[in-house]
Write a structure and sequence with these properties.
The protein is an alpha+beta fold. It is built from 17 helices and 39 strands. Helix content is 27%, strand content 34%.
Length: 728
């Protein structure tokens, strides 16, 4: 008994009793309302027995918790999620119904009557009932099939959309006319809302109930199907027998007479006389359409309030418990470095020990406070003035962690490790050249970067010798941002070590960089000039019996960028870059001479190639037999034989070179367009790229010097296959 009391007191002591505000009272009232409605409803269902069993299990678990029955608690904790899912599955139909009923309640209207006196409420009038009964049995006498769906509490909007909107007052004549054979609206269902026919020719879901008679057709299955999925009342008139049937709640009643049909419609009418002069109460129970008195279910109401208070108290304690969050900090700020430099160790400098692990920070607070804490709210510093001793190396400096979130005190914070290892090293100063880059940015259209210069061009960096020796280069990156004019920009320096990695913040803090680690970068932007021609010549003579045909360059034009002065100088040369003739020597050559020439040193001052231009150009001097000549023949004039069906052929070049000679005729008399005929044969070729021979036909007295080939690409065409037809 003593153990029981002790455990109970300990359990209750862990519960916090916060101040109750207006919002808390509203929450408790709402929880009590929903709990009461659920308990009143379930009291009159078969699920009530299961609910009592669940309450017994929960009571047993509470006892196990108070007495520290760890085995039972372990079993329950591992089965809790499964049990919750099982309860939801078991009570799924009941839970769905209670939610639907709750949604149908007019809560505000039940609390506040805006009018007084008595009024009659009904879904449709007695006249509508008479018109429905008359229409159904009139159609039954002549065996006219009909399907009429009467909307109840659940809206049938989705099914209305499948039909044709009418929105007409319901009359027997209109119904009979709709379902008359061969009329446009006779097929499908009619949906009735209140006293109006809202739509006709509507599609309904068919029932999957295997217990329905096989003699029933699609009309009856559709009527049962809509009654299974909604609370509607569906009237079916058989086209074969003329019988009138009613489907409701997934059940089909066949062969009803007019009196029975009227009785069913009167129930669906739900006529009520409402007294608005009396205040209706929030917590009231209903048992099979009979209202209980205000004094009924007092125990349930008290129990509902008690359950609501307990749930609120438990959630408050669970929602905002005290716990510990863990954070990782990669950098610790080292402060008061001057203390080391001004002490007996003058001439020394300090830096954090290399490869030191990140520090772990543990903060204990309530959940609401912990949810607000971010890593950026936490800062860690190591004060050199608090070092135990400067005679050791490394020096151990205590770490102090603070959090800017209100409610977190220093006593709530723990840090691991508690000290920062700091190395003392010789002071060293070195000078480094500033490398300027533009990163991924570009100048404006038709402009290139001419030059990027930093001021100062060099910087002096002072720091621990070990760290200074790690430095490989100093970079400054400028943002061009589409500029088209020269400009200057102040940028921060980036220090790169010999592993081509950027120095960490802690390493940067150990360095002293002149000008506060900033430089001024000047960007000179040059205008782009396109279509600059390349001129090439040669020296020497070819072998005996040979002559020079033509001199070609690839590419034949380039793009450059330059200052105003540089481009003006280029214009004075007619925008031509000339390759010195002594660069190519054809002496004694009997074949074409091809040589790669660099353009870098051939450009005028303050002019450079654009970034998309190659530094090299290929120069080709064609060597032809004496008495021959080179003709350029357009590939578009080449005849294509045996072209693959449904494929297209394209040439890789716009023209081919044909070398022709003649012993007794003048080559100048040969007309390129009229006298030269060319063709290719693509027999057996499929999709792909090919180098194919070109058959050249010349007038008498002329012949080709060498065989001619060309590159073609065979690919799928865009022709439409008219043989394919769309078939439903």
């Amino acid at each position: 008994m003593q153990d029981f009391s002790g455990n109970l007191i300990e359990t209750l002591s862990r519960l916090a009793f916060p101040k109750i505000g207006i919002i808390d009272i509203i929450q408790i009232a709402l929880i009590a309302f929903f709990v009461y409605q659920f308990m009143v409803w379930i009291k009159y269902t078969h699920a009530y027995t299961l609910l009592k069993g669940i309450l017994v299990v929960l009571l047993f678990i509470l006892i196990a918790y108070i007495f520290r029955m760890n085995t039972i608690l372990w079993i329950f904790s591992n089965l809790a999620s499964t049990l919750i899912v099982g309860v939801i599955v078991i009570f799924q139909p009941e839970l769905r119904k209670v939610l639907e009923q709750l949604g149908q309640k007019r809560i505000m209207a039940s609390l506040i009557p805006f009018d007084a006196g008595k009024e009659v409420k009904e879904r449709f009038t007695d006249k509508t009932i008479s018109e429905l009964v008359k229409a159904c049995f009139d159609m039954g006498e002549v065996k006219t099939g009909a399907l009429i769906v009467i909307e109840q509490n659940e809206l049938l909007t989705d099914y209305i959309r499948t039909g044709i909107n009418l929105d007409a007052i319901l009359t027997s004549q209109l119904l009979i006319n709709i379902f008359e054979h061969n009329t446009p609206l006779h097929d499908g269902a009619v949906i009735v809302r209140e006293n109006r026919i809202v739509a006709a020719t509507c599609y309904l879901p068919l029932s999957d109930n295997m217990e329905l008679s096989k003699q029933l057709g699609t009309r009856h299955r559709a009527g049962v199907g809509i009654s299974e999925q909604t609370d509607s009342v569906t009237i079916i008139v058989s086209e074969e027998t003329g019988q009138v049937s009613v489907a409701q709640g997934g059940k089909l009643t066949r062969g009803v007479n007019s009196a029975k049909l009227r009785e069913i419609l009167v129930r669906a009418q739900n006529k009520q006389v409402v007294d608005n002069s009396k205040l209706r109460h929030l917590l009231k129970g209903r048992v099979k359409h009979e209202e209980a008195k205000n004094t009924d279910n007092i125990p349930l109401k008290i129990m509902s309030v008690a359950i609501a208070v307990v749930l609120w108290l438990i959630v408050v304690n669970i929602d905002n418990p005290t716990g510990t969050n863990y954070y990782t900090l990669n950098d610790v700020e080292l402060i008061n470095k001057e203390y080391v430099e001004s002490s007996d160790t003058i001439g020394k400098m300090c830096m954090p020990e290399q490869n030191q692990d990140s520090i772990k920070v543990a903060i204990t607070a309530t959940k609401k406070i912990r949810d607000k804490i971010k890593v950026t709210d936490i800062s860690a510093v190591a004060d050199l003035q608090q070092a135990v001793s400067l005679d050791t190396n490394p020096v151990m400096v205590p770490i102090t962690v603070t959090c800017s979130v209100p409610g977190v005190s220093p006593s709530d914070i723990k840090v691991t490790p508690q000290n920062l290892s700091v190395n003392l090293d010789e002071k060293e100063t070195q000078e480094f050249v500033v490398n300027v880059s533009r990163g991924d940015t570009k100048p404006g259209k038709d402009y290139e970067v001419g030059s990027l210069t930093a001021s100062p061009e060099k910087v002096r960096i002072t720091g621990p010798k070990t760290l200074i020796n790690k430095i490989d280069k100093v970079n400054a990156s400028i943002e061009l941002d589409g500029n088209t004019e020269d400009f200057t920009q102040d940028v921060n320096l980036t220090i790169i070590d010999k592993n081509q990695e950027v120095l960490t913040d802690s390493e940067m803090n150990s360095l002293r960089i002149e000008n506060n680690a900033k430089v001024t970068v000047t960007a000179k932007l040059w205008k782009i000039r396109q279509g600059v021609q390349i001129s090439a010549d040669y020296v020497g003579t070819p072998a005996e019996g040979y002559q020079v045909g033509a001199v070609r360059t690839v590419p034949d034009t380039i793009s450059v960028a330059g200052s105003a002065e540089g481009l003006e100088s280029l214009a004075d040369n007619n925008n031509v870059i000339t390759i010195p003739e002594d660069s190519i020597d054809i002496s004694g050559e009997s074949e074409d001479v091809e040589k790669k020439i660099s353009l870098t040193n051939l450009l005028p001052d303050n002019v450079k190639l654009t970034s998309d231009s190659s530094e090299d150009v290929w120069v080709t001097v064609s060597i032809l037999p004496a008495g021959s000549r080179e003709f350029e023949f357009p590939t578009k004039n080449i005849e294509v034989k045996n072209k693959p069906k449904d494929l297209q052929v394209t040439f890789e070049t716009a023209q081919i070179e044909v070398r022709i000679k003649s012993d007794n005729k003048d080559l100048d008399d040969l007309n390129n367009d009229k006298d030269i005929k060319a063709s290719i044969d693509l027999d057996g070729k499929k999709e792909g790229s090919y180098e194919v021979p070109v058959e050249i036909v010349l007038p008498d007295g002329y012949e080709t010097v060498e065989d001619v080939t060309t590159e073609v690409v065979i690919s799928s065409g865009t022709a439409v296959d008219d043989s394919k037809e769309n078939k439903e």
